[in-house]
Amino acid sequence: MAQRTRSERAERIRHLLETEGPAIHAQASASNDRRKETYGGTDDLEALRTDARAIKEDAIERLPELIETVRAAVEANGGTVYVADDAADANAYVADVVRNEADAADTADASGTTGDADAPSVVKSKSMTTEEIDLNEGLEAAGIDVTETDLGEWVLQVADDTPSHIVGPAMHLDRGQIADLFNERFDPDEPFDTAEELTRFARDHLGEIITEADVGITGANFVVAESGTITLITNEGNARKCAVTPDTHVAIAGVEKLIPTLSDLEPFVDLIAKSATGQPISQYVTMLSPPTDSPTLDFESPDEPITGDGNGAADGPGNSDRDFHLVLLDNGRTDMREDDQLRETLYCIRCGACSNSCANFQSVGGHGFGGETYSGGIATGWEAGVHGQDSAAEFNDLCTGCTRCVDACPVKIDIPWINTVVRDRINRSGDAESYDFLVDGLTPDEEAGGIDPGKRFFGNIGTVAKAASATAPVSNWLADAGPVRAALEHALGIDRRRDLPTFRQESLVDWFEERGGPDASSRRAARAARDGGAEIDREVVLYPDVYTNYVDTERGKAAVRTLEALGVPVRVPDLPESGRAALSQGMIATADRQASRLFAALAEDLDAGQDVVVIEPSDLAAMHREYERLLPEQSFDRLQESSYEICEYVYGLLENGAEPSALSTGDGSEPVAYHSHCQQRTLDLEAPTVAVLERCGYAPESSSAECCGMAGSFGYKQEYYELSMDVGERLATQVEDAETVVASGTSCGDQLEALLEREVPHPIELLAPGHSRR
Amino acid sequence: MTVDTIGRFERALEGLEVEFERVAAADASERIDAVADAPAVGAALPYEGVSLPEAVTIEPTTAELEAARTGVTPVGFAIAEYGSVAVESTADGAEPIALYPDRHVAVVPESDVVPNLSAGFDRLADGFDAGRDSVVFATGRSATADMGDLVHGVHGPGEVHVIVLEDR
């Protein structure tokens, strides 16, 4: 598949923002809000997530054994199990089952009255797995009529469209669009208008088709291996009808849907509706161990009792008129299971929570943030696994690594990491490009050639910033010059509508040395402690992240002054990059080396019991999350235990006797709009900042927007600029009325400054002693 | 079984806009007759001293099933926490009878109302061991938002009425 160019991508995104974004945002954000509320009201949520995760890990580990277990169980019940290698294999098998069933029905009817010689017919309930294998096209090519009975899927079938969301496939269409579509297609006497009218029509229309169908096809949310139980989670009831009405039921499920026992099902039943739609439980949790005892329903013999000839004797192994086939689909899953990085994808229960919690998804939906079949954050893993890396490459960039999906995922999949890994693999699969020379000198990375030069530029931003700072202000003048911006846009994809950071000639590290270094800091801290501070015997290494060190040095200075005023001496050594920038571009080898270097540079301080304090949340998140994969366990633990976000640290000092009066305090009611940082929230570090602001006499109000849209380099990129602004607008609308707006993240602050056209400092700048009100 | 569990069940059903009533076994037939809008079909109730009213057709034909306004069925048990009833796939057609008509009247003895999902899974496991291994946890009314707004009664019942039989 040919990759789209930057301008093609920009055009595609612009189109989706206009056409599908509004409907998607309305529904996805509503589901996300309900999920948060329901999660919040579930006392044992963490235990449920942990259990669910453990069950999936175990099930995937034991997958070959579970396939044999379910085969035995289904066969003992009187059904059939077929393991399909790929889409073509699965489609051919299902087509055979349908044709055989229809032939048998025709033969039976030959002596009867109906003389049914119509095409074989299938009714289906919603299943992403059948979307993955294009089952409908496969069956239609075999002369079989297929009707989707889930209303969303049916709308798409009528519209000849594709799902834009794993759970709400027609989420991109609003009521008016559906009404127009149905009025045109079905030409009713009275045009459809309300959802009620549309739903009634669909119920009657589809109800008739279901009663006449030869075969019912469902997916399966879970398959209990030991009992051969298919679990279907639905709200409409169509899956029940598809499974129970025709006498042949075919369930199609990826092999990863197998779980060992019935008791393993419980946490998933408890979780899946909460994570998907924010409902406590779905309307219908259908657990069928087919063939079931339910009588088959022959609507062509309307005067026969449904209990018929007694075939449904309860003591038998199910109703003998019933036929059941479980099709287990591999289609790349065995390879995913062998892949240490993609394996986690198989734990996915397809609830769509990662989509709903994703700001970019909320703006463009699954037709932008999605591949051939799957959409949202987890889609990168699915598409790479079942359709190949090219499908994932089309949309993988839309994951900014913000991690809002991490807390949403009911099985605790590290979705951002899967995106990072696949990005890294995509980088390595590219051809060396002609612009590599532009960034070669600036990119002391570990990456092979072929990576997008823009990614390489942002991935090495520390080196870029150091060079720019050394040559400031000339570098800033140059960067602002029209021809330079045009060149940056053309070669690196940096959108010329973005303000570029202004690099400081004097870095934070230089400033700190200039004012006397650690000795002066110790004296200042001691003096503050003597003048009424508490006895706090701590020492801090303040991490000079790239941005704080070279661009926004003010927040670094504010942090130093705040810590000293609370009696804590500070050092600001020149430390290596954290690897965050490289990670966000999918440059894992570079990040790995940087993590090792940073840990080595800090090891002695950590052993000496010093505290590492970090201002930029994304750098702290690298240390607390990704370093687990990059450093030895013991090193990771040591750094994680001793590193803190700046306001979290100040909160700890205040809790241990330090006095807020040493800082710039408010009058107790001064309103402050506060936007935390995505990764900071995932680390549960929004609350300490809010608490510190309150302790210091401010009345902070936190934003509820998931993300600012900037996400490091994302908003600089030409193809994503408009998406970034669309996401940012939602945040800006929430905070624009506040006189004071603060943000913890660098890029959050930049984005808000661009949108609000005023200064948006870090909270520590508000709190630092000597802060003057703007 | 505690009164609290029944209270919790009632509150959950209220939140789901499901009608609820608690009746003595002796009055059950009369109450079912009152709430089962005609024409009604049903699956026989396996509770001693409780029978379906005559107006409810058992072993219906497919035509009767399609035409029915109400389906009356026993349920294996109910889960108070979520307001769910466990519809079992039985040879007398409880599953389609609970599914096809627009109104489902579910009958459950008080002693079969369990407090939470865990207790529900214990009951489910007991049933599986006894061969009752196809069960639907039905919670509230069939619903969809696929047409742009929330609508009830799309493929499954748009009205649900739960009758809890007091212990005899």
UniProtKB/TrEMBL annotation, chain A:
GO terms of biological process kind: lactate metabolic process
Keyword annotations: 4Fe-4S, Electron transport, Iron, Iron-sulfur, Metal-binding, Repeat, Transport
Record keyword Membrane present: no
Classification via SUPFAM superfamilies: alpha-helical ferredoxin, NagB/RpiA/CoA transferase-like
Record flagged with keyword DNA repair: no
Basic and acidic residues bias locations: 1-18
GO molecular function: 4 iron, 4 sulfur cluster binding; oxidoreductase activity
Name listed for the protein in its UniProt record: 4Fe-4S dicluster domain-containing protein
Domain (4Fe-4S ferredoxin-type): residue spans on this chain: 391-418
Organism expressing this protein natively: Natrinema versiforme
PROSITE patterns: 4FE4S_FER_1, 4FE4S_FER_2
Residue numbers spanned by region Disordered: 1-44, 289-320
UniProtKB/TrEMBL annotation, chain B:
Source lineage: Archaea, Methanobacteriati, Methanobacteriota, Stenosarchaea group, Halobacteria
Highest taxon of source: Archaea
Protein name: Lactate utilization protein C
Species name: Natrinema versiforme
Signal peptide boundaries: none
Transmembrane feature ranges: none
Domain LUD span(s) in chain numbering: 58-165
Annotated Gene3D superfamilies: NagB/RpiA/CoA transferase-like
